[in-house]
Amino acid sequence: MHRRDAENAEKVTNEILKARGTMSGASRRRLYLLRHGDVSYFDGQGKPFRPNTVPLNAEGRRQVEAAAHALAGISFDRVLASDLIRSSETAAIVAAGRGPSLESRAELREIQPGRLADIPADRIQHAFVGAFTDGIARETCFLGGETFGSLSDRVLGCLQGLLADPSWRHLLIVAHGGVNRVILTHALGLGLSGYAVLEQDPCCINILDVDAAGRWLVRLINYTPYNPDKVGLELTTMERLYHDYLQKRTCPER
Predict the structure, then answer these.
(1) Domain ranges, residue 121
(2) Is the residue at 127 inside a domain?
(3) Is residue 83 part of a domain?
(4) Which of 75, 26, 77 is CA-nearest to residue 211?
């Protein structure tokens, strides 16, 4: 009886997949989308380092090693990262010895901030903690810098180019919190309104499948193998950045 039930279930599943032209999911390809590992954005006096130059810190490297272990059984056909150090370092560790050469893409850079010094003191908290919350529009600027419309256009343009390449089945992209939100909200059909409900913790793993017709299947979001239960990860990334900014400014290193 149980065997017959299993056979019937398999038959129905195969008929559904065949009707969609995706027998056994064979036409779907898989995107492994990671955020880079942890970095330190501020010096001892609360002054920001140039965000395009910061490398992984010790905690970030530990996180990346955990992600590499979690994905150890995957052979990547293409490996891409933004051209920022923190992303390229992450990708190199995750794909070490089991993938093609790393491809660097400027289009996958994080959304570019303006100068914190140009933001009025009474607006700095909102600028940080409200950066990825409700009310984002295409013309909204991130910390006084790049607009979210500009970010979306360059990231989705890059993604469409990758989807047009039939040579890969397993693609690794290591990018940033803002960049990943563009791809995830696109796959989920949410647009800019979805930024507020998605978090991307340091070195998180997202897994998305896409078929030949461009239909997405989101399988995993914001998984952190170094901390799967999210213990101590109560703050959002931007809340933590604001906390670090305040702490460095009020408790300078001696």
Answers:
(1) 27-250
(2) yes
(3) yes
(4) 26
- Distance separating alpha carbons of residues 226 and 65, to the nearest angstrom: 9
CATH number of the domain that residue 129 is part of: 3.40.50.1240
- pLDDT, tens digit, for every residue of 203-251? 999 999 999 999 999 999 999 999 999 999 998 888 887 777 777 665 5
* Contact call for residues 14 and 8 (beta carbons, < 8 A): no
- Ramachandran angles phi, psi of 7, nearest 5°: -65, -40
Domain presence at residue 11: no
Domain count, the chain: 1
pLDDT of residue 132: 82
From residue 194, how far is each of 186, 212, 230 by CA, in Å?
Answer: 9, 25, 21
Model pLDDT, residue 253: 46
Strand pairing class (205-210; 216-223):
antiparallel
Dihedral, 125, 149, 209, 200 alpha carbons, nearest 10 = -10
Average pLDDT score over the chain: 87
Give the per-residue pLDDT at 254. Answer: 38
CA nearest neighbour of 204 among 35, 56, 61: 35
19 part of a folded domain:
no
pLDDT in tens, 50-96: 778 889 999 999 999 999 999 999 999 999 999 999 999 999 999 99
Round to whole Å and give the CA distance between 69 and 72. 5
Quote the pTM value. Answer: 0.84
